[in-house]
Amino acid sequence: MTNDKGRMTARGKFITFEGPEGGGKTTHARRLVEQLQAAGRQVLYTREPGGTPTGEAIRDILQHDKAGEAPCSETEVLLFAASRAQLVRHVIIPALERGAWVVCDRFADSTTAYQGYGRGFPVEQMIAINEFAINGAQPDLTLLLDLPVSDGFARLQQRGGQKDRIEREALEFHERVRAGYLAMAQRWPERFRVVDVRRPVEEVTAEIWNLVERVSR
Ligand code: T5A
Question: Which pTM value belongs to this model?
Answer without folding.
Answer: 0.95
